[in-house]
Amino acid sequence: MTYVLSMTRFNGLKLNRLCQISTINTIIVCTNNTMKNITLSAPEALINQARERAVAKGTTLNQEFRDWLASQVVDNEERLLRYQQLMEQLSHVDAGRHFTREEMNER
Description:
Helix content: 40-55%
Shape: elongated
Order of helices and strands: EEEEHHH
Oligomer: single chain
Number of domains: 1
């Protein structure tokens, strides 16, 4: 059995309710103060384990997904910033010439 989280109120505290359906799990994601529905499929056992873990943390599966999604965006932005800073720090480095593909792949 698979579950669907469906929105019941937008401005209230209760944003979702649990419904049983077959093979679909819908998670509500908060973006720019609006909610978007995203439909995901996952094995029932995995959904149940994730839900139990969320309850143990005092949250919901829906909130866990929103937190994970936000962390992915932040992680990517931070990585890009670190990469740009590194490239700026290394901008003075000059190999003196262009290497051929074979030379670059030599070990």
